[in-house]
Design goal:
This protein has 55 residues and is mainly α. The chain is 93% helix and 0% strand.
């Protein structure tokens, strides 16, 4: 068990996995922010179109 832990700590796979996890988290945050921003703008546009058609 101890040998497996030492091998894991010496290998480059651990830090690489952490880097990929951080990049994935940042991508998810950016996507959620973009969806939130664009969703609000789209809702506003659809409301304006609906009000214009309804008039």
């Amino acid at each position: 068990m101890l040998a497996a832990i030492k091998r894991f700590l010496k290998s480059e796979d651990g830090p690489t996995a952490v880097e990929y996890a951080v990049m994935l988290a940042l991508i998810i945050v950016v996507c959620l922010a973009a969806i939130s921003f664009l969703g609000g703008r789209a809702s506003s546009v659809f409301s304006n179109v609906g009000n214009t058609i309804g008039s």
